[in-house]
Every structure is written in structure tokens, then in C-alpha cells.
Amino acid sequence: MRVHGRARFGLAAALLVTALLAGCGGGPESPDSSRDSSRPLDWKRCDAPEGDTAPGPGWRCATLDVPLDHARPDGETIGIALIRKAATAESERIGSLLFNFGGPGGSGVGILPRAAASYRELNTRYDLVGFDPRGVAASAGVRCRGDEEQEKAYREVDMTPDTRAEEAAFLADAADFAAGCERLSPTVLPHVGTSNAARDMDAIRAALGDRKLSYFGISYGTELGGTYAHLFPETVGRVVLDAVVDPTADSVGHARNQATGFQRALENYLKDRGQDPATGARRMAELLERIDKDPLPTSSGRELTESLAITGIVTPLYSKSGWPTLTAALDEAGNEGRGDRLLALADSYNGRDGDGRYGTESHSQRAISCADAKARPTVAEARALLPEFRQISPVFGPFLAWDTAGWCAGWPVEGEHDTPEASAPGAAPILVIGTTGDPATPYEGARRMADELGEGVGVMLTNEGEGHGSYGESTCVTSLVDAYLLDGEVPADGRTCS
What number is the average pLDDT over the span 188-203? Predict the structure, then answer.
């Protein structure tokens, strides 16, 4: 439950979404108008990821060696895992389209084959390419603790501590997690920040033989795309940023944005169910207080704690299609006093399978986020945020306020910046899409990203709707994105899809 790791809600959201503009300006130059094949890749049949099945026919995998430390290009290297499905209309091929689905910590090698049906039209003229960013999955994935330790933390640590003893346990768990990362992933941990991943993307572009980068970034992938544009404006091709992270927000700002966004989505959900939003949110907060005092039983024998219940509530808010699931889970918890449905939702978000094994996306997410962000808010600073955050959202505010202190507590690597750089003077037009009801990356951040990219670069497209991500959800947005990526038709800045 995290956005791009600045707070626990969010960018993993993009994974949930994918699993499952009037007037034309001059289009950007065709990405394959010149090719760079100086570092050819050895594409082979893909092996099945651990605990998963191999992708279907047509997918090929490769590994690209890049510097572990880009400041030392001749030093130790790290392998970046790639997956590709060739364009189906070879005679009309434009080039490669690189994807990042968010997290940070999402495996593009794992996600893209499952999401590819949504990009069938784009695959006619683009090779679809996914990658595991450094520190993720097959690219020297960060690991910080085992399944039993993870289960114990979810069971015992209160993420909204009410006493000094609970605060101490909260901080001790954060420090233990950080120490585990340093112990189990010492080599890669200092080098997993977003700017390094953006430099890897340029190496991928060159290895794919493309003079310009065509890129589709979702959620945290928009921060990665903005960072790439800042570092390499001259090689920006056709770039789409959907469900946009606010590049002007620091750690506390991201938490505040998410409290606002998830509360907005919750109120939209309650209105859709014919309930008064203020009354419905208050009742939900009261339910969480009861669960905090007396966790709910489940058929598995595990208990639904308050922290797990919050995760379970937030999960179906990522998409309007999840709202009926949320209703059923809340009815079971509130009327029957059982937590099976909310626990199942929390498990799906936390990457827990039926055998009690956890994925490591949350490990990578924290490592990347804390490598990026300099801020290390204290417990006292988090406690001081509580009145404001409760006012913004009685349901999600306390969780997000406390998370500002717990997320990078005791982290062994210093963060790189307060806020990421996204200015990209001279870059080709970049399509920036914000959805008005987006819970994890609220709409306002998209406008700020378009402004930060610069005049004539950031092209703003508004999607009036619900959910985290709009491509494939809005027919209007999908058609405009396809026209931009396939034909170079740039929508008018300020276009709205309703």
C-alpha cells in the first residue's frame, strides 16, 4: 500500500490497474528515424519466474549489463532484466515502446505479458518492452526480510500507534527492516535511486537500437519518466505519463496528497452508494477504532488488525470496478464481525499468496523511495501532523501521517533530493494525463508535472473519472494516446475527456 514509496498508499496501485486531445500539433519525430545498434541484445526464450508461469508465445527475454554506479562506468555492473514482444506489423514498425507500471518495485518483466492485451493496438507498430528496474525482481532485487518476519510485522505492528509502547514497536520494526535491507542487499542498496534507473533506461534505449525513447509510464513510472526527460531531453520521443506523481511534493507533501486523494475517492464511493460522505467516513473510522481494540476473526485463524483493515479498504478504491467488492467487505466486517474479505484484499495488496509467502515488491519500493528522498521525519514531526491529516481524512489520515516517520526510519543510505527534477527544456511534447478521481496520485499533481516539464513540453490531458490510471479505462483517453503514439498527433494542451 504505497505510492511511489513516499507513503504507503499508491504506486503499487498501478499494478492493480494493469493486472486485471482536440486539435493536433506537429508530431514528434518518428522514434526510428535513426537507429543506434551499438549494443545489441541477445534475446532468448523466457524462463518462468519463480512461482509463476512463463509468458506465452512471442515473448523474448534478455539481460543488459549496466554500471552498478553510473559515476564509475568502467566498474562493477548489474544486469537489467528485459522482456519484449515484437511488433505484429513489421513493415509499419515505429520502434520500441518501453513501459514502467509503477511501484516503485513493480516487475515489468512480470507485468507486461499479463497487461499486453490492453496494448494490442500499440503492439501492431511497436515492440512492447518491459524491464525490471535496478533493485527489483530479476534485476538484483532488494530483499530485506523473510516471510515469517513479514507476517509477524503485519500481525503485531500497529501502523497508527496510540501509545508510546506502540510507537516504540513501530520504530523498532522500521529500523529492523532497514537493517535487513543493508544485511541482505548491501551491494545494490546505495544505487537503486530513480536517477540511476533513468540512466539505465537510456542504456536500454540504445541497446534496443532506438535514437529516441518512446515510453509509457504509469504512477511511479511517471516520476521515472519525468526524471528521464530531465536528464536526457534530447532523446525524448513519444512519452506518455498516466496517473502522475506530483514532482513538487516532498515526503510529507506526498502523504498529504494521498490523504486528500483517497478521501476524495472514498467520498465518491459513498455518494455512489447513496450515502452522506461525512457520515459514511465517520462510521468507517469508528469501525477501524473498534478493530484496533478488538481485531476481527477470519476463517483462516489469522486476525484482521486495524492496519490490515485500512489496507483492505484502500485496495478496491484504486478502480471504480472494485467498489462492489469494498461494499461486500465492509458489510461483512461491520454487520457480521468477520474480516475474511478485508484480509483477502490486504493480502493481495501486500503480495501474500495462499501459502503465506510474500513478494518483495515492498522491499524494493522502500529501498528506491528512501534512496530518492532526503527527508527523514521524526516521530514528533509525524505526531504533529495528526490533527491536520485527521481533518483531511479520518479514515486514511492517521496512517499516512505516521508513515512519514516510519518509512525511512534508520535507513542506511542517504537520500538524493527533496523533490525530483522534471524540467526538460527542448524535449519533444510529453503527454501528461490526470484523472480527477485518482486516489493514489491526485489530479493536481498532473498539472504540476506538465508545468515542471516546461512550456511546449508538458501537454496536459484531463480525464474526468475515477480510478488510478486512464488508458484502457476511458475510450477518449485511449484513442488520443493511440493517435499520439502511433501517428504523432499531439492533443491540444488542456484537452478534457469526460
Answer: 98
